[in-house]
Amino acid sequence: MAVSEAVNNRYDIGAGEQMCPHRLVLEHVTSRWGVLVLIELLERPYRFSELRRAIGRVSEKMLTQTLQTLERDGLVHRDAKPVIPPRVDYSLTDLGREAAQQVRGLALWTEERMGEVQKAREVYDARRSTS
Questions:
Q1: Per-residue pLDDT tens for 23-76?
Q2: Separation CA 65–CA 62 (nearest Å)
């Protein structure tokens, strides 16, 4: 297989799932919106519009895609109630709760260490500007 063919296959979802399924799940859990959805749903179940407001700055389309992806991975449960108007609640499965706790740990670590990260950035930028 040519190198370019291998690179193209790497980003093909079908090929990616066959070659490295855990990598795709990791991408879903740690994506920009995946992280925020999981952390919010740790608190309680949400209706779609509530979740969108809680997360902020996410489009309806992107939130829908993120929820569908996490549902497919078995991390989010979608409960559609047959009422008028329709009501859909999203919550974490046991597997999702476990993943969300891990992600929240990383998020808390970034909060606690942000001062050190900022200092490292300033040192790096100063070194680069004098080069």
A1: 999 999 999 999 999 999 999 999 999 999 999 999 999 999 999 999 999 999
A2: 5
Instruction: Identify the DSSP state of 85.
Output: S
Per the CB < 8 A criterion, the answer to whether 46 and 90 are in contact is yes
DSSP class of residue 75 equals S
C-alpha 41/C-alpha 51 separation (Å) is 8
* Token output for 130: 């004098």
Residue keyed to tokens 């970034």: 110
Residues 6+ apart with CB under 8 A from 73: 25, 28, 29
For 3, the token pair is 């190198």
Whether 70 contacts 76, CB under 8 Å: yes
The two three-digit tokens of residue 62, written as one number: 């992107």
Structure confidence by residue, pLDDT tens digits, 72-88: 999 999 999 999 998 99
